[in-house]
User: Fold this.
Amino acid sequence: MSIAAADRPPGANLVRMLPKSPVSRAALIQWTVAAVTLVLVVGPLLPIFYQSLLEGPLYDAERVTSFANYTEVFSEPSLLQAVQNTFTLAFLNAFISTGIGVGLAILIGRTNMPARRIFGSIAILPIMISHLVLAFGWFMSYGPAGYITMVFKNVFHLDVLNMYSMAGIALILGVAQAPLTYLYCAGSTALADQNLEDAARTCGATPGRALWAVTLPLMMPAIAYSAALSFASGLETLSMPLIFGESAGIRFLSTILFTQGMTAARPNHGLVAAIAVILVVLGLLLIYVQRLILRNANRYVSVGGKASRPRVFDIGPLRWVAFAVVLAYLLIGIIIPLAFLTLRSLVVFLTPMVPFWNYFTTRFYTDMLSAPDTQAAIANTLFVAGVGGVIAVTYMAVLAAVIHRSAFPFRRQLEYLALIPRAVPGIVAGVGIYYAVLLFPSSGWLRNTLWLIIIAYVMRYLPTAYGSLSPSILAISKDLDNSARVMGADWWSATYNAVLKLVTPAILACFTLVFILFYKEYSIAVYLFGPNTEVLGTKMLRYFINGQMGNVAALSVFQVITTLILVFLTRRLLGVKING
Amino acid sequence: MADLVVDGLVKRFGMVTAVNNVSFHVKDGEFFSLLGPSGCGKSTTLAALAGLDRPTEGSITADANVLFDHRSNRFLPPEARNFGLVFQSYALWPHITVEQNLEFPLKLRRMPKAERQQRIRETLELVEMADMAERYPHQLSGGQQQRVALARTLVYRPAVLLLDEPLSNLDAKLRDRARVWLSELQRRLKITTIYVTHDQTEALALSDRIAIMNKGEIVQLGTPSEVYERPSDPFVADFIGTSSFVQGRIKDCAGGQARIEINGGGEIVASIREPLPAGCAVTVAVRPENMRLSATEERPSGDAGTLLRASILSRSYGGARFHYLVEIGQHTLRTETQATFEGGHVWVWIPAAGALAFASR
Assistant:
């Protein structure tokens, strides 16, 4: 046996001679990742905070600090009105989206309502579609000159709900946000122990009673958590308030940020920064509230051990009522707006007075594919989503490995740091990067480049992507990388070969998620895009502001279809499912 | 091939001291076991040897190389030690084949491809897994995975082999065979081995020496027969074999034996490790296999010992023999025998050599 001891050079293999360097590769990678994260998260936030205390713009030679900007927000009546509107919308949105989401979760997930599987996949469509596109769809269907509005006005002489109102904005935002609530609540019912409901049934409760007394209370943490999430998205949302509020004079903090950045000749930077700080502070408070909710959630967690398929409640003839209600919701909320958006992209003019085929055209699509500026917007968006996505996911995978699999002394703090951007609305992330470039002239070469937009996107979506990667990294046994270490691999080699390679499916899923998020994002870019660095969303917004609805519709359809193709392909080719 | 010296090892987690002042010296080629119940610090000690955990105090030396020394603040990371560790979970990488699993440590050592393949083949043959090289870990049975895990560790010829309960995930039959196989392999390779287990049978069968640990400390260190036959305290007596205990006080002692008055009445003759003063409170440990049960009052001739009348509390069938729980005064003893006894009483013969008295603390 040649492996036997006698054949070995004595003592030759005791203590391996490792390459000597003053800094180990592990330390180098860990400190670099930590430094990048610090710059990425704090870099945009500090300049906003600084600007909010300055009376003039950041780039003025003379800098006077005061609280004038904050006093302005809370004393100027129109601004105070915007603060009030923002909160009203956040509350309404939380109510509406939670109501719809919980209703869908129970009807689709737990009852014998007909067609519930198809309904389920239509209901989550808005997650993959930009809110902006959904808003355009609603605008073209139910807006003052929308097709449905006109039908009701001219044929039935009836007024439908005025979308140019707080109620209208809250309704559409609620519809756009409901799928997230639906997914959270459906996920929590899937985890619940089936025996708990069975126990209620065996002691005499009717199905409805069991649903009301056991199932619904068990969903409470998921409901509370997603309500807080909806509240936060109500605070930061831009598309719906912009499209339905701006022309009716209903203003919100986010739309003020937008108009200051996009249309004002000389933006009031002090005001912009003060509003941004207020939004970030509110966001941090909401994160804190969510943490409290999750901490107290143990009372509701029922760990049954094995994941059993939840039993379906037989709701008798009521199921046809449920069917009709959900069908109407899906038609009005999602299908009709998307249908008219598509129709609008194929006609010169859309009105119920004239059959639409009289005005049929493919002009908007040929425009889109031939005009240099839309070509550029498409190419830019693909670059940001593709190249930016690869960079983002690579960085985030290493970050997650440092946080979960290293002896890095500040890994706990690093995780908190990585979660902070959840409190930062998209447009505020853009504002922050914009100020950071102004404040540090050495980064000036980034101005008007796509890299700047990528940096801002990575910052904003850091928590989302990190959250999607973390569980799969945590699920890998520490023995796997430890055994590589004992065999002679350094930290990076062990982590790369025994952890990151193993979670390849999760990394691919994360990439698809990041790609879609980057692909549909626009609010972050509002402050950052230049003449050559427009993305799809900002291009659509400019078309909308100019009233070029056909072009808006064509670009929207293009974005929706390409996104759906991507989702379909990843599901088919990689077996990767994206949920939320 | 290394002498391993552990000196004054301490590991604290916050307020908890998991390992307290552990010292031992493993000789080149020795099979050394760390044995103890869960939470006794044996796995923490092993992690410190592997370099996965940094100890709080003490030192670890292999031959002339200091692996850890808290005074000079030296700590070699695991990858610099060239040790081999077989995990309880085997820790085979599921995404690559058996062959690729073995190849990884060789690639790290920049071994040329031809030599790598040669070495992998030899090692797989050694563990009788040569025809499984192309399989993925999930396609192997538990016993096969355990062999591959060992092969992956042996393939790069580590200086010291660390085994963390490697047999505990196998079923009882397979475990017996794997134990014999592992023992033969170790003696053939003469590799310094440290074996962590909570299973006394494994430790007794495999080890040259055993360190028995309790609450972070080594309570006894010796050869298997030493720790079995001459346990240093009641904990070891109970942990190695399942002893029953009788409390009492020394009446007098002479020639390594003592007469002891049993609390609650009666008298017993037991061996002692050192002379104890009269009146000293003692605990007497007796192993089930050392007691003889009989239906009638018969005393074996020649040997010193004690014959006691006991009432039978319960009987259970254990396959080869019966286990009787019997009561003597206020004490309950576990005994075993092949005979069946009807009725409520039995005579128990306890030879002085099979009863060990320890001064109670």
